[in-house]
Structure formats: structure tokens, C-alpha cells
Amino acid sequence: MPTSILGPYTRTIIVGAVIATTLIFAFTNARVEVWFDIQPLFEWMETTWFGVIGKTWGAAFAFVEAIHLLGLAMLGGSVLVGEGRVLGLIFTDIPARTIIDRTHRVFVWALITLLATGIFMACGVAMKIYYLPVYWYKMLALAAGILFHFFIRKPLLVRDLEAINPWLLKAVAISSVMVWFTVAATGRWIGFSG
Amino acid sequence: MNDEKNQDSKLKDDQSAAVLATATFVVFFAVYWFLQIQSVRELLELARG
Hints:
The structure holds two protein chains of two kinds. Chain A has one domain (10-35, 54-192). Chain A is built from nine helices and no strands. Chain A has helices at residues 10-26, 30-37, 39-47, 49-56, 58-86, 96-124, 126-130, 133-157, 166-192. Chain A is globular and about 55 Å long. Chain B starts with a helix and ends with a helix. Chains A and B meet through helix 1, helix 8 and helix 9 of A and helix 1 of B.
């Protein structure tokens, strides 16, 4: 029985469409056109209060960056613990459901912290990051990580792990670690660039 | 019975979506980091002369 207008494979079709759209966007002129079009947004970001404070008051930028890094540590920890349990590597004496639910709560708070502090920091160095390719890779990885966590991983792991294909579980856990590793690595890379 | 069928169908959909997403991530991750490491190696070779 169809579950929606797209039929029984609604989620799969949406994921396929998102991947296809991203690939078309990446390999056509649309990417460059959008990049040119959003330049005024980045120029404006530097003129906001966040931008002015970030540029002129180094201590404020450093303080917010410290919170950003703590948020990243929290997020990385929640991902490693959650996926480590899904892979059956750590905390095997604690039910997987307990670990998955608790790490998800930490993940959400860490993500909110990262986004809030990240926006402030981006305003302070808006034109620098606008010209950095690695910043755009980080945004791609971040968007992919958020979509993956909330629209793929969470709906899949809401049921008993025994009901899910064990190889797929491993693939989901490894993919999650990979995408958040890329977010962290590219983020650190921004600090070393320019 | 019908509910069980729906649950099974939803599980299949969630699993198919996850296969598609994880395969894309693994391929992208492998290509991206391979190219980055290759680029660093070339720069190091240039620096060494």
C-alpha cells in the first residue's frame, strides 16, 4: 500500500533526488553563478555587529572560537560513542537503545552550539572564507551530515537494531564518522588558510 | 497484518535510502581525501626540488 504520493520508496526517491540535484549543481555553471550572487551577503555579514566585534575584538573572537571547539568536541564525542556502540566496539554491556538516545541528545545540543558560534565566527572573517574552497567543502559536509543524521540515521535506528541489516548498520556508522571527520578536518583547515 | 506489511515496507524504504546515502558518502570521502593527499604529496615533491 503506497505511503505517499511517491509510493512505498518515498525516502529513497527523495535521497536520490537530493544527490542528483547536488551533483548537477556541482558540475554545472550554476555553482559559480550562485557563488557570485551571494557575495553581497558575505560583504553584509562583515558589517553586522557580529562581524564588527569579530574583526575588532580578538578576545571575543577567541572566546567564541573556544566554545565552538568545545561544541565540536561534544559533537565528535557523541558521534564516536554512538557509532562505536552501533558497531559493537564499545559499551557493549549497555543497551544500544540507551546509548543511541543519549548520544542523540548530546549531538543536538552540540550542533546548536556549533551553528550559533559558527555564524558569529563566519561574520568576523566573511570575505576570507568566501574565497576559500575548503569553507564550501565544510558547508557541504555539514549540510550532508545534518541531513544524514536526521533523515537517514535517526529514522533507521528508531527500531530494534536486530531488525536492520548488520552490514548496513556498519555502513551507516562508518559514514557518519567519515562525514563528521570531514566537517572537523575542513573546519580546522580554514584556520590554517588565508 | 496490514500494519505489519506497512512496517516492513517502511523498513525497506529506510534501508534503501541509507544504502544510497552511505554509498555516496564513501565514494565522495575516498575521492576527496585521495585528491587532497595527492595534492600534498605533489607540493612536497616540488618543495624538495
